[in-house]
Design brief:
CATH architecture: 3-Layer(aba) Sandwich
Helix content: 10-25%
Number of domains: 1
Oligomer: single chain
Order of helices and strands: HEEEEEHEEEEEHEHEHEEHH
CATH topology: Glutaredoxin
Strand content: 25-35%
CATH superfamily: Glutaredoxin
Largest sheet: 12 strands, mixed
CATH class: Alpha Beta
Radius of gyration: 18 Å
Distance between the termini: 38 Å
């Protein structure tokens, strides 16, 4: 049994190792990694969300724009979008190129919103500038975490999958080269402080509504009070986004994924 688990772990590392210098995005049942020509689907299943993508697809264009220039925060928001809007892709599937929609939207639910509903989402590869306070009203910025890997855990005390994954999150953050920032969304101060005391959390914790700029920037939420947690953002020491993972399905893999991204030898040279 131990040997089988070891093989599974090695397979996971092998799956993610080649993307060690490129960002990854995982939303529910789909994981994509950036390549110079676009975004490659490295894993996909048919449940629980039906995207029109299969493993191996290369997303070349998104709504007519070069997918290779599209950053991970915008990709996370596109896959996690709370708007009823058709997103058009041009993909390479094997030797064929084709136009598809990212997901099927029933006609009765289709309601386009604006020319650019994602204009408030950070679209580049570097984490956006952000200033906010922790639950003790001390000022924080993302800039102050530079120089170490930073794991941002978007969670809530009202979210059972967030608590289920918390031991793995806290374990992942117990590294000399890593910092942890927890962001409780739509939460209550007393509940967050009880959580901090119960889990003996030493890392800073902030509280925000879903409509705050930080969760919107990273594609975790939208300005329509929609989104999903747990949400994990891993930022490299130089400030570039390495991973955005959204949804309870991915929470079970977060510790191993982070370990692979940080521990692979090639990651010692942060691009």
């Amino acid at each position: 049994m131990k040997r089988i688990l070891l093989y599974i772990y090695i397979a996971l590392c092998a799956q993610f190792a080649y993307s060690q210098s490129e960002p990854m995005v995982a939303v529910d049942n789909v994981t994509i990694t950036h390549e110079p020509k676009g975004w490659r689907v490295v894993s996909a299943s048919t449940t629980p969300i039906h995207f029109n993508l299969i493993k191996g697809d290369l997303i070349v264009r998104i709504d007519g724009k070069n997918a290779g220039d599209t950053g991970p925060m915008l990709m996370a928001s596109l896959f996690n979008e709370g708007y009823r809007r058709k997103i058009n892709l041009f993909i390479k599937r094997g030797d064929f190129g084709m136009e598809i929609g990212l997901r099927e939207i029933p006609a009765q639910d289709y309601s386009p919103v604006g020319a650019n509903p994602f204009k408030h989402v950070a679209s580049g590869f570097s984490a956006p500038d952000a200033e906010f306070n922790d639950i003790d009203n001390r000022p924080l910025t993302l800039e102050q975490f530079k120089g170490k890997w930073l794991l941002i855990d978007f969670m809530g005390t009202w979210c059972p999958p967030c608590f289920e994954a918390m031991p793995k999150v806290l374990s992942s953050a117990e590294r000399d080269q890593m910092s942890l920032l927890m962001v409780a969304l739509n939460d209550k101060p007393d509940a967050v402080r009880r959580m901090r005391e119960s889990y003996k959390i030493k890392s800073p914790i902030a509280m925000m509504p879903f409509t705050a700029q930080l969760p919107i920037d990273f594609g975790v939420a939208t300005n329509r009070w929609t989104g999903q947690i747990p949400g994990y953002v891993l930022i490299r020491p130089d400030g570039e986004v390495a991973l955005i993972a959204l949804g309870a399905v991915y929470a079970n893999h977060i510790e191993k994924t982070i370990d692979c991204l940080i521990s692979c030898p090639a990651n010692e040279d942060v691009r």
